[in-house]
Design a protein that fits this description.
The structure holds two protein chains of two kinds. Chain A is α+β, with helices and mostly antiparallel strands. Chain A is 18% helix and 41% strand. The chains are: A alpha+beta, B alpha+beta.
Chain lengths: 88, 188
């Protein structure tokens, strides 16, 4: 939710060959891979980009930091989604 | 190398499987095939002759050349196997990655916004160091000033990718003269 709420994020990434996801109990969280050391967040960025990609990634990192539990956060931009008619 | 290795291993394992089936058939004298009927003695004799030729150092020149060629091929293959595979994603530094398709799409968009470019094809290679290697092939009309278009395209692509925060380690641009009737964009 924190990543999705970041400006410039269109949706969580679905990967290309393998869907990045975390499974716990009966719940599946797409676009997030949690390992003991790392937290990998896959996103689809909104295009045109409101800000450069490194800034969006940094913003995501700041937002998820409280939930990351000290894990190294890796942000992967899987795709861009053209949002042309937004605001019309 | 990964695809080559897979094909090689599939063929090797298929060959071993077939040989294994033959071995079982011959070893247990099935379907009238007997181990004693195999021309093993001729093969063993030939092999013995070859090995003694290697030991004595009196092999024919063609055989020596073939052995040297095989050794060089083996060495080249070994070096190719030692090289780590290229990463799938483009590293942007500080734990941020972007898929190659994102860079491809952005470069194609920028290139086709340049008035003289009628169409483009983009190839992106990720590297272990930050930044992508971009190979851009742009199609232009015949008779255009290639050098001006190339330098303009180079600076535009670099500038736009830099604005987006997409790191570029190398940009190779190839301009190809094309007939506007056969390109995606006829008039810019």
């Amino acid at each position: 939710m924190a990543a999705l709420a970041t400006e410039g994020v269109y949706s969580m990434g679905r990967g290309r060959f393998v869907e990045p996801a975390t499974y716990e109990g009966s719940e599946k969280v797409s676009g997030v891979v949690v390992t003991p050391e790392d937290l990998e967040i896959h996103i689809v960025a909104r295009y045109p980009l409101p800000r450069p990609i490194p800034e969006i990634a940094e913003n995501i990192r700041e937002r998820v930091a409280p939930e990351a539990g000290g894990r190294k956060t890796v942000v992967v931009v899987d795709d861009l989604e053209v949002v042309g008619d937004e605001g019309l | 190398m990964r695809v080559f290795n897979r094909i090689f291993m599939i063929l090797l394992l298929a060959g071993l499987f077939v040989l294994g089936v033959y071995m079982i058939v011959y070893a247990f004298d099935l379907f009238g095939y007997k181990l004693s009927s195999l021309p093993i003695t001729d093969f063993a004799g030939g092999l013995k002759g070859f090995v003694s030729g290697v030991e004595d150092g009196n092999l024919p020149v063609a055989t020596q050349a073939l052995l040297v060629l095989l050794a060089i091929l083996g060495l080249l293959w070994f070096i190719a196997e030692l090289r780590p595979t290229a990463p799938r994603r483009v590293r942007m530094g500080s734990g941020t990655y972007v898929s190659r398709s994102v860079v491809e799409g952005e470069v194609a968009t920028v290139a086709e916004e340049v008035p003289d470019v009628l169409g483009s094809s983009v190839g992106v290679k990720a590297r272990r160091s930050p930044g992508a290697q971009v190979n851009l092939e742009a199609r232009v009309r015949r008779g255009e000033d290639m050098n001006t278009i190339k330098s303009g395209l180079q600076s535009t692509v670099r500038e736009r990718l830099s604005e987006r925060g997409l790191p570029l380690s190398r940009l190779n641009i190839k301009l190809v003269e094309a007939d506007p009737r056969q390109t995606r964009t006829r008039v810019q």
